[in-house]
């Protein structure tokens, strides 16, 4: 028997608790968030379920905008136009040919993708304010265009559509069924974008955002990736617009004015450019802050909204996602 054993001391090496890696913490947070999302519609009243559904819709739209602005370094003031194209594609196909709801989703995605591909061509030669003006022009002329083709779009009166009803086997109410449809689309969209950003395409987009000259020297084809960034961004906006049509059951040109594009961009900046949580936090901003501004001052809600944006950006220059990350890093960890 050794002296260490005689002294009653365990000679075996001390086992340390494995520390969570950032990836492990991120996965745990996503799992907890998803579990809460699955549980929420059974505990909330229908109106609050509707609000959460709209948050998911806006999160998908901002996911596409984040891909373009946050990861590719481009600018767009016309993202609401792609949102409207997806909404009207689903509405027209449902109202006219009577296309089943599930088929309107890929149709809206394809139409918005092709439109984004067409508008992505000017992005090859334009930058900064010039590119912003081109995208802004798209958002401006879309509303009069929708009103002009009254026979297809319903003109100023819009189109009223029946909402997708829950199947009998689900046992869900209509608001819960629409929520889960939006949740499924949002989860699939975030998974697709996450996979895209982890691939060679994501590295090329980040190189394009950081330094176009260096990216070109490294072999990144700038025209192709700039155009595709617009197309992918538009596609997710179109998907969000399609789900918006399912949830609201009505589309009108006045729902897709320039204010929508500006609000989406402001929401993304407030949420956090280039971050995973940015689109979700931005969607919460887009859904709730304008209504709060309206309640605070019915005469000038835009002034209140602007002041709220300034206050948030003063406290969190990198967005709410960046602020949350800094607060989490300040929490002392046990060794």
From TrEMBL:
The chain crosses the membrane at residues 24-42, 48-68, 75-93, 99-121, 128-146, 177-197, 228-250, 256-273, 303-324. CDD domains: TM_PBP1_LivM_like. GO terms for cellular component: plasma membrane. Pfam families: BPD_transp_2 (PF02653). Keywords: Cell membrane, Membrane, Transmembrane, Transmembrane helix. Residues 1-23 are annotated as: Disordered. Residues 14-23 have a biased composition (Basic residues). GO terms for molecular function: branched-chain amino acid transmembrane transporter activity. The keyword Transmembrane helix applies. Signal peptide: none annotated. It comes from the Bacteria. It is found in: Cell membrane. The keyword Chloroplast does not apply. It is a multi-pass membrane protein. This is Branched-chain amino acid transport system permease protein. The lineage of its organism: Bacteria, Bacillati, Actinomycetota, Actinomycetes, Streptosporangiales.
């Amino acid at each position: 028997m050794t002296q260490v054993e005689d002294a009653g001391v365990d000679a075996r090496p001390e086992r340390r608790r494995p520390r969570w890696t950032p990836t492990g913490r991120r996965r745990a947070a996503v799992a907890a968030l998803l579990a809460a999302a699955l549980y929420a519609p059974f505990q909330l009243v229908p109106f609050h379920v509707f609000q959460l559904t709209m948050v998911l819709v806006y999160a998908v739209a901002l996911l596409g905008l984040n891909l373009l602005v946050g990861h590719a370094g481009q600018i767009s003031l016309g993202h609401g136009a792609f949102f409207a194209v997806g909404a009207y594609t689903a509405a027209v196909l449902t109202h006219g040919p009577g296309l089943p709801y599930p088929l309107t989703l890929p149709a809206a995605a394809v139409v918005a993708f092709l439109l984004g591909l067409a508008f992505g061509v000017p992005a090859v030669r334009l930058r900064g304010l010039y590119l912003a003006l081109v995208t802004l022009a798209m958002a401006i002329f879309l509303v009069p265009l929708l009103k002009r083709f009254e026979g297809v779009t319903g003109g100023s009166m819009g189109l009223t559509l029946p909402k997708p009803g829950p199947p009998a086997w689900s046992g869900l109410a209509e608001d819960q069924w629409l929520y889960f449809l939006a949740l499924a689309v949002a989860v699939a969209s975030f998974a697709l974008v996450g996979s895209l950003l982890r691939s060679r395409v994501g590295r090329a987009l980040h190189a394009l955002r950081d330094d176009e000259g260096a990216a070109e020297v490294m072999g990144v084809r700038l025209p192709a990736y700039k155009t595709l960034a617009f197309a992918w961004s538009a596609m997710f906006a179109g998907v969000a617009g399609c789900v918006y049509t399912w949830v609201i059951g009505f589309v009108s040109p006045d729902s897709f004015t320039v204010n929508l594009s500006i609000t989406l961009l402001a929401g993304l900046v407030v949420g956090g450019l280039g971050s995973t949580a940015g689109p979700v936090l931005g969607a919460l901003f887009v859904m709730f802050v304008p209504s709060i501004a309206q309640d605070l001052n019915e005469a000038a809600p835009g002034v209140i909204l602007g002041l709220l944006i300034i206050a948030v950006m003063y406290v969190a220059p990198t967005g709410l996602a960046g602020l949350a990350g800094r607060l989490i890093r300040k929490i002392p960890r046990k060794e």
